[in-house]
Amino acid sequence: MPTPPVVNTPPPAPSSTVGVEVRPVIPAASTVIVEQDFNTYNERPRAVPAEIAYINVTASTTLEYTPIIVRVDASAGAVTITFPLSSSAYGRQIWIVKTDATANAVSMAVQSGDNLWRPAAITTITAQYGCQSYLSTFDGTNAGWQYVGGG
């Protein structure tokens, strides 16, 4: 069986970002970002603690940004949480949690132009500590919030 030809890779491209080295790989249009100290010290990149953003809500509101957790107290009446435009939050996830024990419902809505994709049976949260999770997505044609899960 013949030996395959040797593939010559181009030399590393100069980096303008401190601590990050960009190296061309095949195909030529692709790049890989490698932490520069990884090879020098044979260490894995260090994990950085995440900050989890949450807000407390007691009345219907339209979110202007994407917090990770929205804690809803619906003891004063039904509450509607309107998600931010999904185009400003692609890939972000929101958890909606109902914190009170009343029968008042917490419902989710989207702004004009967005879609809300979820099972027909999933429309509101009525149980204390019930939650639903949504992910901002784009299906190639439409933007919106996809129901991911909850309980």
Characterization of the model:
The protein is mainly beta. The protein has two domains: 34 residues, no CATH class; 97 residues, Sandwich (Jelly Rolls), CATH 2.60.120. Helices cover 4% and strands 38% of the residues. The strands form three sheets. It has a six-stranded mixed β-sheet with strand order 3-5-7-11-12-9, with no helix packed on it. It has a four-stranded mixed β-sheet with strand order 4-6-8-10, with no helix packed on it. A two-stranded antiparallel sheet has the order 1-2. Strand 1 and strand 2 form a beta hairpin. The termini are far apart. The relative contact order is 0.14.
Please tag this protein with its features:
4-stranded mixed β-sheet; mainly beta; 1 helix; globular; single chain; 4% helix; Jelly Rolls; 6-stranded mixed β-sheet; 2 domains; 151 residues; 12 strands
Short description:
This protein has 151 residues and is mostly beta strands. The protein has 1 helix and 12 strands, in the order ββαββββββββββ.
Write down the overall mean pLDDT. 75
CATH topology of the largest domain: Jelly Rolls
Shape: globular
- Look at the helices and sheets and give the structural class: mainly beta
Name of the CATH homologous superfamily of the largest domain: gp9
Order of helices and strands: EEHEEEEEEEEEE
Helix content: under 10%
